[in-house]
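Task: encode each sequence below as structure tokens.

Item 1
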Amino acid sequence: MFLDSFNITDMWITTLFKKWMKIMKKSLQTIAIANARNENIKISVCQHINSIPVKESHYVRQRTSKLYFEESLTFPKLYSLYIEWMTKNNPSDTKAIQEQYRRIFYKELNIEFFKPKKDQSLKCEVHEKPSELEKEITTRDYALHMANKCIIRQIKDNDKVEAKQSKKNC
């Protein structure tokens, strides 16, 4: 009834459906190939980013697993290092374009660029970038500083627990 109202035959619908299926099959194959290529690109980007040294956050170390690149590194520098790394290590593989690299970096990995804190202690700053003479002198001081920091944190935590349990109001 439907075919008669438009004055078309069964063969016309069958041919249309077959052509449509061929087009869909090709597009699905293209998507599968693109996904496989994207997976290889993602792996190469992750390998490159994991090869760069990172450091922990100074103050929120206990509460986060976020890692930071050193402060001199920026995203454009990081991407140019990736291109050099790919040319050297995997010249035949497809390189990620900058937008793919940016998407993988920000969505897949828990790493950011380091932003120096204004309130970071002087001893910690000196220990991060010491000269040879300073390194010998500050190693002992830094170890003492870190031990004191742990003790002070423990005292602070004990005071918090005591304040919660205490029924006195300030």
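Item 2
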Amino acid sequence: MALLQADIDELQKLAGTMTVAVNPKPTPETVRYPSVLQVGKDGQQDFRDKLNKPSARGGQFLDSAILDGDNRTYDDEYGRTVAADRVPSARKFSFRRSLVGLGLVVGAIAASGCESGDHDGLPKSALPTTLPSSFDPCKDIPADVLASLELVSEGRSIPPRIGGVGEQYKGCEFRTKDGYAPRRGSSTYIQATNMTMDYFTRNFAPEHQFNSFDIAGRKVATSSYTGLPCVLFISLKEGGVEVGPLSVAERDSCQVLTEVATAIIPHIPQNA
């Protein structure tokens, strides 16, 4: 469905000088950051400005961004410099749609209001409308478990947010203990999400290095793309848990995340 001109005018008004563009297919350079990109506390307007600056101090999490891979860096919440292509859950955008600027909003409107499937004609996997409540990553992981993973037990809360087409996330970022960041990455985020295993597989398996397996009877999958950090998904009855690193490290990030999943799954209620 074509957007009404009034809708486009309103989006352009909100975006200022940003370009609104929707391309039917992603390019190899297009990378998806659905989970967290730290920007200033003044929100999305500030996000636009900071993309044009060499660094941005962490404060608020936004869900999605398209970056052109020009090696810009951002300072995270702890003052550490993070390359633009190393923000959490970096992955190739695989929703059959390459979005630039407010094209993210345009794509969401078109997908939610006018289409019954993706551009490839396949039906979309419906997502639960609420986050799973049976497991809270910020409260339900014992401190000694986090310590065994070389993570600081006091997590930094990630505000609830929406990304992708109806995706929801809420959780915490756990900083890596001093001296271990080169091996494990600067921090790890663990968050509840309404994504299902079917949805995760559909959107993050194509053109990725994708593996699915079981840990303690729980279905788990990892997805990675050359040169970018891995992301891991733990399936729950309603939604799941997403785990990812803030940056690449010396060790294979999928292996690191599998260790995290192995440690935290026993603390997820069996009926979750």
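Check on item 2: The chain has two domains: 5-113, 143-267. The two ends are 38 Å apart (CA to CA).
End of task.
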